[in-house]
Specification:
Layout: H1 2-24, H2 29-51, H3 59-73, H4 111-141, H5 143-150, H6 173-194, H7 200-222, H8 237-242, E1 246-247, H9 251-257, H10 265-270, H11 279-289, E2 300-301, H12 303-312
Parallel strand pairs: 1-2
Helix pairs in contact: 1-2, 1-3, 2-3, 2-7, 4-5, 4-6, 4-7
């Protein structure tokens, strides 16, 4: 856990420093602050993926979850409970189907289609979550209102807009507190902006920093999978692997593009509880010991290659690879 704490706290300090420069310094220092702030926010936010895989029975992991939410998740109105649906992305009966919150087949691989994937599936769910939080006070008074208005949507950060939360991962008491706190902060932000205490320019700059960091994650998500399950039928573990991508190549560039272990997404689908700082070593061992024709070797590509193949739709289909050992 020391690695988690050190990484997150340094990233958080970079976010505060870069954000302050972006908000209050003059150009070009402000632009430099924006660049650092955006990346730091992106890295801080990426810890949410680790948190949803934490074991609720481990006090050390729950302490980190609490600190991350109090320092980052709740202030940006994205507590980790909004991402608990991610666990269904790993379930064999829901992966790649309409029940998968993080999978949408990419039919149109034009630049417009890929841009729509990034912006539509980043900004859309965020808007739904914000609307849900605005309506939370009414929904708490009239519980049936939430289902009637949004069919349960807006309670999760997703890629698949048609996904409806199943409640398989019941929220803890802290999760419920986090939702209440985030909702209260949203109203507080609105009041501070309307009253002029927070100038519109400052509010707009904060929004730009947060949105750009989320768009970066959206671009990274483009090459997390092959998105070729056009039939929308459930698939086995082998197909989950071959539909997923490891971004190999320069580890520094890969780590910047997909931080906190996200560049080893295919390996993560094999061993989803492996901590992010152990993925690179595990990947190296697999590449040393697996036979040359193993399916795991087909999921490893560079970032540029992954983008080109995504655009052309030339990726290897799951049925065309040799079964994994």
């Amino acid at each position: 856990m020391a690695i988690y704490w050190t990484d997150f706290l340094f990233s958080y300090a970079a976010l505060i420093t870069g954000g302050a420069l972006w908000l209050f310094a003059s150009a070009p220092v402000a632009v430099i602050g924006l660049i650092f702030g955006v990346y730091a926010a992106y890295r801080c936010g990426s810890f949410m993926h680790e948190i949803v895989h934490f074991n609720r029975k481990k006090s050390g992991e729950m302490a980190f979850k609490g600190a991350w939410n109090m320092m980052f998740g709740i202030p940006i109105m994205s507590p980790s409970v909004l991402y608990d649906s991610h666990l269904e992305h790993h379930m064999p009966d829901s992966f790649g189907t309409i029940r998968d919150p993080e999978y949408v087949p990419i039919n149109n691989r034009s630049f417009f289609g890929l841009a729509n994937f990034v912006f539509g599936h980043v900004l859309g769910p965020i808007s739904m979550v914000a609307l849900r939080m605005l309506l939370n006070p009414l929904i708490w008074i009239f519980p049936s209102l939430g289902k009637k208005l949004m069919n349960g949507k807006g309670t999760a950060l997703v890629i698949n807009w048609d996904y409806v939360p199943t409640g398989k991962q019941p929220p803890t008491s802290f999760d419920r507190f986090a939702i209440v706190a985030a909702t209260a902060l949203l109203y507080a932000y609105i009041a501070l902006i309307v009253s002029g205490i927070i100038p519109l320019l400052i509010a707009a700059k904060i929004l730009v920093l947060v949105i750009v960091s989320m768009i970066m994650n959206g671009i990274r998500t483009l090459v997390a999978h092959r998105y070729e399950n056009y039939d929308g039928e459930s698939v086995n573990k082998q197909a989950q692997l071959t539909d997923s991508i490891n971004l190999v190549g320069n580890p520094v560039i890969g780590g910047l593009f997909a931080p906190v272990g996200l560049r080893f997404h295919a390996l993560h689908h094999l061993v989803q509880t492996l901590p992010y700082h152990g993925l690179a070593k595990a990947h190296a061992k697999l590449m040393d010991e697996l036979p040359a024709d193993d399916a795991y070797r087909t999921v490893n590509v560079g970032i540029a290659q992954a983008m080109v193949e995504l655009k052309r739709g030339e990726r290897i289909a799951a049925k065309d690879v040799i079964p994994a050992t």
